[in-house]
Amino acid sequence: MRAVLRVLAGLFFLVAAFAAIADVTYSTGGKGVVMTSLLDHWGRMAPQSLAGFQGGLRRIPLVWPYLVRPLLSVPAWGFFALLGVLCAWGGRRRSSVNIFAN
């Protein structure tokens, strides 16, 4: 399980790096600092799945506008970096403590 979490951490860090590079590339175009949210990336890559996800969550009042949308409005690189940190923390090797009493 720890190995799976370490692999996932690496993949999440890779996606975070790609998202950060994309934001830096857009920012050098002279438009100022650009931070693309996870919602914007999802809307550009898979608009039908985003519409289906929104449609399913809008049936439950207050879930989409107050819970899910703010979570998806964070910058994509930050979201995936946080997931990478959490997976890396969960997959870390625990240090064993040897206690010897004389």
Description:
By secondary structure, the protein is mostly helical. It has one domain (2-90). Helix content is 73%, strand content 0%. The protein is built from 5 helices and no strands. Helix 1 runs antiparallel to helix 5 (76-90). The longest helix has 30 residues, at 2-31. The protein is extended and about 65 Å long.
- Proportion of strand residues: under 5%
Helical stretch tally = 5
How far apart, in Å, are the first and last alpha carbons?
37 Å
Kindly state the percentage of residues in helix.
over 70%
The tally of domains stands at: 1
Succession of helices and strands: HHHHH
Contiguous runs where pLDDT drops below 50 for at least 5 residues: none
Biggest sheet overview: none
Secondary structure class reads: mainly alpha
Summed over residues and divided by their number, the pLDDT gives a mean of 91
Rg calculated over all Cα atoms:
19 Å
β-strand number: 0
Shape: extended
Task: Please write out the topology.
Layout: H1 2-31, H2 38-45, H3 47-57, H4 63-72, H5 76-90
Please outline what is shown here.
By secondary structure, the chain is an all-alpha fold.
Keywords:
102 residues, 5 helices
